[in-house]
Amino acid sequence: MTGLRWSLIVVTALLGAGWILLVVWADSFRRSFGASPNAAVTVMLPVVVLGLILASLLLPEVRWLQHLVAAVAAAVAVGCVVLMVETVFMGTLGLAYVGLWLLHYWHTVWNVPPKG
Questions:
Q1: Is residue 114 part of a domain?
Q2: Which DSSP string do the residues of 35-104 spell out, in sequence order?
Q3: How much is the pTM?
Q4: Which of 1-10, 24-33, 61-70, 98-107 shows the lowest mean pLDDT across its residues?
Q5: Residue 87 lies in domain
Q6: pLDDT of amino acid 116
């Protein structure tokens, strides 16, 4: 499970950095054509979600954070299903990522070996 956890950490960090770079580059490109800037929710919501997921991966012993991110992951899964109307590939990638995080969540929180 350590391999899954670190794989998710790397992927989450790369997604977050990539999203920030894309937003900065795309926003300057949009403005060069006179378009209005993106809404703050569109820009910041993915960063906040990825930050929460990254925090839950870096701090697996904080159970309340794990449960909070599980609720966020359920909302992201619903969003991925809605996204499948536009693009099946990206929706499937999102569902696969959320599924792997939920597998990590299950092993971290619920699959605790008995003590003693």
A1: no
A2: PPPPPHHHHHHHHHHHHHHHHHHH-TT-HHHHHHHHHHHHHHHHHHHHHTTT-HHHHHHHHHHHHHHHHH
A3: 0.84
A4: 24-33
A5: 2-109
A6: 55
